Amino acid sequence: MKDNEMKKIRNLLFIGASGAGKTTLAEQIFYLTKTTNRLGRIEEGNTIMDFDPEEIAKKMSLGLSIGYVKYLDHKINILDTPGCPDFVGDAIVAIPAVENAIIVANATGGYEVGLELALEQIEERKMGKVFVVNRMDNDNADYDKTLEAIAENTDIKPVKIYLPIGKEGAFEGVVDIIKRKAIKAGKESEVPTNLVEAMEEARIHLMEAVAETDEDLLNEYLENMELPEDKLIEGLKKGILSGEISPAFLCSAGTGEGVLALLNGIINYLPSPAEANEIEVLKGNEKTTFICQPDGELLGYIFKLYADPGMGDFVYFRLFSGTLKTGMEFYIPEKDAKDKAGTMYFMLGKNRNDCNEIKAGDIGALLKLKNAKVMNSIVSLGSKISVIPVELPTPTTWQTIKAVNQADEDKIGTVLQRVIAEDPTIRYELNVETHENVLSGMGEQQLQLVLKKLKNRYKVDAILKEPRIPYKETIMASAESNYKHKKQSGGRGQYAEVYFRIKPTERGEGFKFINSIVGGVIPSNYIPAIEKGLWETMEKGIIAGYPVVDISVEVYYGSYHEVDSSEIAFKIASSMALKDAFKKAKPILLEPIHELIIIVPSEYMGDVMGDISTRRGKILGMEQHSKKQYLTAQMPLAEMYSYYPALKSFTQGRGRFIQKFSHYEKVPDDITQKVISAWQEQTNE
């Protein structure tokens, strides 16, 4: 086989709930195709895909890993993603890298939270949505009930391609309803007589589903009440690629039964990169259609970074078009920078197979790139095209991070950037108002994993705690004040006097300084010092240690001394006069308000709406999308820090939200007094 033959490649993204068996399925595929000579088991910590020490310790996937097999003259690339919702970013970023999402569903698990979340990521996408109902050998395994639960809760309607032979402990193979063959242990045989009727019924349903996606096929089906096998398969592939048909397969990854049959189905019925060669890209800022070809213009996409402590940073990438060879320079439009391909690899977990080139349709890895990061494009020098960026979910969890040892404080920023580069849903920034380093992401497990990686890889101990709220101070009334700064202690003294009028400005207008001095009562060269004194005081805060905003300060009178006046004297007088006036002008605190879109199943709406009210939130509206309610609300950031765990609790894990900053609002008086008292206690210590 030539790996560059796009039609002989299948790219698969394994997604689904934690515990559905994605990694176990990958291990069976490696073993049954003789890619490995032993079957890796999660409980033994020896799987190909879960190789990170933290994954082995927790016995669960915590990051995306890739592998591949050669089977029946085809290459099948497998991207295995975590099922835990905290790590959903890996799946979201990898979706553009494949033609087919393989949704692994637990035959005994019902409509699980992780399954629901996985389907939400792909429901609207034009790509293959392929269901594999796993654990068919388990007690109470039910293929039909699992597919019905998916159809009831989404707009996706799975269409059976395979039927089970036997059930639970007696599950022994599958029936391919297209080829009308039974497959046991990878070998074809005649369909058991007790399943012929069910097979023919399922075949009619499949032909109807395929015919509905194409007018010519529909006419032929209506005329003959049958579709030839070649046209059925061709129509099925097109329907899968467009997202109109979602095929359903089944297996037991634990026993291996049905796994080779699944691989046969993947090769026979799922679209290849050659059939999915028309994609949308950006050309400048405009979307345009791009045709991927082996000899076409270079186009690739980086979907994962893995920081190997010994080797350095690996980036995993999909090449859509052209050929990338060792030594080639390429352009990264998102960074407006060049990079150079060194040694390339085909990855099998942490194991590497060197290669000199990656060709169109394939997936590989590059090591130690200088500029390229996750979600970057790989294009030819001078090219104007790039991959359309994916939309990442907004954070739902925030924590400040600080090194335990002062000696590590200087380097924590650098090593932290390396750790979080592996997961683009983690954000790290300095809050300039609270002077805290804030780590945010999709959940507590995700942020705790950051701490473990810092310690294990870089020997940096760090702690997390809830961030301070970035309140702001302002006023509700006007006031006047004056202050004379006079100090004499031998030698040159200090003298400055200022008169201020302060008043509130419109919310969001900021600070306005008005110089109304006339007649030279304060020389013009001291005016900048007065303004600087105001700025410095406002930055530090007056009543609770938070920045002052939305005020106007007018200096309208004052006095000076020809010898004793100085810039520092006017800065001090300015600061003291502002503090005095501010306290007279009905000072208040402002708090950040965020707008949320809360996505929940309808049955939980009552509890969710009641909880929003207890959190000082406001409900702005709601609308239904598919089977979910989308509730728009506003909530103070102070209440949002603890909101995600509560929402999960109310909704059995099925609720989620996206959020963005909206505006600042007055803090209720009782909370204001608590914040002021806490600050005064702290400053008096």
From TrEMBL:
Coiled coil: none annotated. Residues 7-274 form the Tr-type G domain. It holds the Pfam family EF-G_D2. GO terms for molecular function: GTP binding; GTPase activity; translation elongation factor activity. One of its GO terms (biological process) is ribosome disassembly. CDD domains: EF-G_bact (cd04170), EFG_mtEFG1_IV (cd01434), EFG_mtEFG_C (cd03713). It comes from the Bacteria. Keywords: Elongation factor, GTP-binding, Nucleotide-binding, Protein biosynthesis. InterPro entries: EF-G-like_DII, EFG_II, EFG_III/V, EFG_IV, EFG_V, EFG_V-like, P-loop_NTPase, Ribosomal_Su5_D2-typ_SF. Catalyzes the GTP-dependent ribosomal translocation step during translation elongation. During this step, the ribosome changes from the pre-translocational (PRE) to the post-translocational (POST) state as the newly formed A-site-bound peptidyl-tRNA and P-site-bound deacylated tRNA move to the P and E sites, respectively. Catalyzes the coordinated movement of the two tRNA molecules, the mRNA and conformational changes in the ribosome. This is Elongation factor G. It comes from Cloacimonas acidaminovorans (strain Evry). The gene is fusA.
